[in-house]
Write a structure and sequence with these properties.
By secondary structure, the protein is α+β, with helices and mostly antiparallel strands. It is 22% helix and 16% strand. Helix 7 links the parallel strand 11 and strand 12. The two termini are 17 Å apart. 42% of the residues are buried.
């Protein structure tokens, strides 16, 4: 069996009750930052109350059939993946601070991208039961980027997640040393085959078991790939993208008017003063943000990025396996 020369390892951070009450990571701050900068991600366990997660999960399970009926339903890397983008409920009752603006996650991110990071994008990745294929190895940072952390994604798991129900394949350490030259396409972040095969010879990808109530803070430069859900239940993972205020991200959140006071209460992040609040008949299921990772763009200048990876199914040459390494290509 093939073994990588140097395998990185994940050290989980267990958030204490004192840290939850204070909303600050201490004494686990240094461990969290060390793990993040080493691997490109950190797992913070027991960071979100389960009652809030169950409330959001129940609504999102009800929404799935409606999402699948939409002409605009977006499958990530082809229909066969069974992996869809789903907008989380934007109604005020579902905007739990512990989920949308988790103080533990924000306290840590402030030491990476600066105080009061800007919440600029929200989505969910839902792995449907019966997925037959997987995603390509890719980076979400589809364009050329700076060589230090800028966009961070906070993933919150509404289910216990494992290989059985579609835990994401992650390539630890790939937030460092790679850029647009390593991408296969001009308009997507899929990684060139020769690049990920060579990386696997040094550090193999992993699928992690992550308990419900955990947060993963991830540098979006890090490579990863969605995997099939072999269970009988949808696996839902929320994703909130934050940016430093100095970057002047052009992405803006949109909420119904009824949610304004709730969003304004999140005074530890930048969101309310740059968000758009619309009439309360706003149908969040029809709303899906587009990524725009360009610096200082807000609809003008560089065209917003429309994800192409929903239109293309990943083939075996787009992802790593032990077989492809044995073949040496």
């Amino acid at each position: 069996m093939y073994q990588a020369r140097e395998q990185l390892h994940v050290r989980r951070v267990h958030v204490s009750q004192d840290e939850l009450r204070s909303g600050q990571l201490s004494p686990h701050l240094q461990d969290s930052l060390t793990e993040f900068h080493k691997n490109g991600m950190v797992i913070l366990e027991d960071a979100v109350p389960l009652l809030a997660l169950d409330h959001v999960r129940e609504r999102m399970l009800e929404d799935i059939l409606k999402v699948l009926a939409l002409p605009s339903v977006h499958y990530n890397h082809g229909v066969g993946s069974g992996n869809i983008s789903q907008t989380p409920p934007l109604l005020a009752d579902y905007l739990h601070e512990e989920v949308w603006a988790n103080r533990i996650a924000v306290s840590m991110m402030s030491y990476i991208v600066g105080p009061r990071p800007q919440l600029c994008f929200a989505t969910a990745n839902t792995a449907l039961p019966g997925g037959q294929s997987r995603q390509a190895v890719h980076s979400d940072y589809y364009c050329r980027h700076l060589d230090f952390p800028v966009f961070l994604e906070v993933n919150i798991f509404l289910d216990d997640t494992s290989l059985h129900n579609g835990s994401t394949e992650v390539w630890l350490g790939t937030h460092n040393g790679y850029n647009k030259k390593d991408h296969l396409f001009a308009d997507m972040g899929w990684i060139k085959r020769e690049v990920f095969v060579e990386r696997a010879r040094n550090c193999l990808p992993v699928q992690l078991t992550i308990p419900k109530g955990s947060i993963v803070v991830r540098d979006i430069r890090m490579w990863h790939a969605g995997m099939p859900n072999y269970s009988e239940t949808p696996r839902i993972m929320l994703g909130f993208i934050y940016a430093p205020t100095w970057f002047k991200s052009g992405m803006r959140m949109k909420f119904p008017l009824e949610a304004r006071s709730r969003v304004e209460s999140w005074d530890h992040i930048e969101c309310a003063n740059i968000a758009e609040f619309v009439d309360d008949d706003f149908n969040y299921l029809d709303y899906r943000q587009q990524l725009n990772l360009a610096h200082g763009q807000s609809g003008g200048g560089e065209e917003e990025y429309a994800p192409k990876h929903g239109r293309i199914a990943a083939e075996p040459e787009h992802y790593w396996s032990a077989v492809c390494d044995v073949k040496g290509s």
